[in-house]
């Protein structure tokens, strides 16, 4: 009933505006107040339960809460506004405005809604580029990723790594990684177990509209058994910088460079690494639907020591969103040694990613 009233009010206003040939007359504020405030509240925090007359879902947004709104990119919001809540696996109470608002009006109301977050320094959701398999991104995340690596030739081996990432404050993130390896160095003999556990801290140093730079420090603990090929047995400090650049047409570049510094260099060498990913995203459904992101990674490591060689790999890969909400994604690629190839294997790598800030794992699929 109430929804009908808002929509009618809005339709009337936009009809008037359009009949004057100036649909653009309506500002974001006017659109919001006519079509959205009844549910979302004039202050963006959500209208009181007593006036809206429906039970608000857990994910009902408070637009003044920057930690909740800034990780969302504008495409996600436009999709929900144009096609309604169910287009992203949200409640159908959030109506579709496809008939009532022009793309320009949707643009204007999104810009207005963005204004409810008064905090400064929050990197915008657009900088959360599609995750590459090896190149770590600069954007701080709330997510769990399980990556599996299979040797595609040579001695069989499987590694699965689970990573938990959690944001805190405007620009920080803590990360815990636990790799589990299974190796078969000789036929009939499998070794398996926990490799080196890592705990890292990331901080965004710079974030503009189109680029983001972060630094991370990490301690990698000697939890694995080196006799069975599980880690080096030496505590290692890792440090790196990660950079992300968004170009026009959803093309992007990500670069990560850093060093692994074991405390005992007689047991494990120091090494430096460089990783980069270049890709482009394609969205179905007029630019607002399922997102496909093909990428190519160029990955190098070099031990610091005399006679050390550079190991370069290339990895063609893609990422695709699999849940409607786009909070569950899948990525797969083939890592191919490009230089110094003796004894280095091709590897099939794939991951499943869950952005838990956006909803429960099984929520948001239909
Ligand atoms: C009839 C009530 C109602 C109206 C009118 C309404 N919304 Fe919503 N909106 C909701 C509800 C409920 C949700 C939460 C859905 C959920 O979490 O499942 C929501 C969610 C959203 C989201 C959040 C999506 C996310 O990623 O978390 C955005 C953005 C949004 N609305 C914008 C708008 C705008 C802009 C308008 C006006 C043009 C509007 N809404 C009008 C009820 C409404």
3D architecture notes:
This protein is an alpha+beta fold. The protein folds into two domains: 2-114, Orthogonal Bundle (Cytochrome Bc1 Complex, Chain D, domain 2); 125-358, Porin, CATH 2.40.160.40. It has seven helices and 14 strands. It has helices at 2-19, 28-35, 37-40, 49-52, 66-69, 74-83, 103-114, and strands at 143-151, 157-168, 172-186, 189-194, 198-207, 211-220, 236-247, 251-262, 271-280, 282-283, 291-303, 310-321, 328-337, 347-354. The protein has a twelve-stranded antiparallel β-barrel with strand order 1-2-3-5-6-7-8-9-11-12-13-14. α2 (28-35) crosses α7 and α6 crosses α7 (103-114). It is elongated and about 70 Å long. Residues 1-6 and 11-22 have low confidence and may be disordered. It binds heme C (HEC). Residues 3, 6, 31, 35-36, 38-40, 56-57, 59-61, 72, 76-77, 80-81, 85, 90-91, 93-95, 97, 109, 113 line the site of heme C.
Highest-level CATH class of the largest domain: Mainly Beta
Bound molecules: heme C
In DSSP terms, counting alpha (H) and pi (I) runs of 4 or more, how many helices? 7
Overall SS class: alpha+beta
Shape: elongated
Summarize the main sheet.
12 strands, antiparallel, barrel
């Amino acid at each position: 009933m109430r929804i009908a009233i808002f929509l009618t009010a809005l339709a009337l206003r936009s009809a008037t505006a359009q009949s004057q040939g100036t649909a653009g007359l309506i500002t974001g504020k006017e659109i919001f107040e006519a079509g959205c405030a009844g549910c979302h509240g004039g202050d963006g925090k959500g209208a009181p339960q007593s006036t809206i007359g429906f039970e608000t879902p857990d994910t009902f947004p408070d637009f003044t809460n920057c930690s909740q709104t800034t990780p969302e990119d504008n495409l996600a919001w436009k999709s929900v506004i144009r096609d309604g809540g169910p287009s992203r696996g949200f409640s159908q109470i959030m109506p579709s405005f496809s008939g009532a608002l022009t793309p320009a009006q949707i643009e204007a109301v999104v810009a207005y809604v963005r204004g409810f977050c008064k905090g400064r320094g929050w990197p915008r959701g657009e900088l959360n580029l599609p995750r590459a398999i090896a190149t770590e991104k600069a954007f701080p995340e709330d997510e769990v990723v399980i990556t599996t690596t299979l040797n595609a030739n040579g001695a069989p081996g499987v590694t699965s790594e689970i990573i938990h990432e959690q944001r805190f404050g405007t620009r920080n993130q803590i990360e815990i990684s636990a790799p589990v390896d299974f190796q078969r160095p000789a036929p009939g003999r499998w070794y398996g177990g926990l490799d080196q556990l890592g705990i890292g801290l990331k901080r965004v140093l710079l974030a503009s509209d189109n680029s983001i730079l972060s630094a991370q420090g990490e301690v990698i603990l000697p939890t694995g058994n080196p006799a069975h090929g599980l880690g080096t047995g030496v505590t290692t400090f890792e440090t790196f910088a990660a950079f992300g650049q968004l170009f026009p047409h959803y093309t992007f570049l990500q670069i990560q460079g850093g060093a692994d510094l074991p405390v005992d260099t007689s047991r494990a060498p120091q090494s430096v690494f460089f990783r980069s990913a270049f890709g482009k995203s394609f969205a179905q459904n007029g630019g607002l639907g399922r997102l496909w992101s093909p990428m190519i990674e160029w990955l190098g490591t070099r031990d610091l020591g005399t006679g050390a060689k550079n190991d370069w790999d290339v990895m063609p890969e893609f990422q695709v969103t699999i849940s409607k909400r786009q909070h569950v994604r899948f990525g797969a690629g083939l890592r191919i040694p490009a230089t110094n190839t003796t004894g280095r294997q091709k590897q099939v790598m794939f991951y499943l990613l869950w952005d838990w800030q956006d909803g429960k794992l099984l929520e948001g699929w239909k």
